[in-house]
Amino acid sequence: MEAISTFANAFMSVFNEGATTLTGWVTGIIPSVICLMTAVNSVIKLIGEDRVEKFCSKITGNFLCRYLILPVIAVLCLANPMCYTFGRFVDEKYKPAYYDACVSFLHPVTGLFPHANAGELFVYMGIAAGVQKLGFQIGELAVRYFIVGLIVILIRGLLTERIYAVLSSKAGN
Question: Of all helices (H) and strands (E), which one includes residue 132?
Answer without folding.
Answer: helix 121-133
